Amino acid sequence: MPSIESIVKTRRATLSYSYRTYLARVLWSFLNVFFSLTPRCLYSVRSVVLRLFGAQIGRGVRIDPTCKIYFPWQLIVEDYASIGRYAVIDNPGLIHISSGVAISHYSHICSGTHDYTKSTMPLLRLPVYIKSNVWIGTRAFIGPGVVIGKEAVVGACSCVLRDVPEYAVVTGNPAFRIHTRSFSV
Known about the structure:
The protein is α/β, with parallel strands linked by helices. The protein is built from 3 helices and 19 strands.
């Protein structure tokens, strides 16, 4: 069995990203200061800044200035979606947010994890797809590789580690289905 020191040195010597990505991350960290200082009502300015860094942002998107986005070039946000205050978009892998999605305050969406079956624990980039008209409640966590079906609701403080079917209402840690949405006219 190798020593802890050799395992950690091997892990740290393994590049998780290309040098180009590291450079982009440094540039984004400086520009992110400007992003976070924009007045709340300037949604279109933040959309332009994100597009400059490769994000695909639709019409009428509202992203709060306090939202933390790690990799704009790995983000797709379709028309009329919104991302609330202090939400975290931790996206070493793609995060695709479809139209009409509402991501509430302090929610965390993460598309990265590590392969714990290997001693070097390489980074895994597992895409997250949030389908149309989904509501993600306050302080919810959406894990890597998850698909949230259209019209689903994720309750506050839920931890979603598996796919959520269309129209499902889930809550808890780990999240479980408590209801199916139905609409009255």
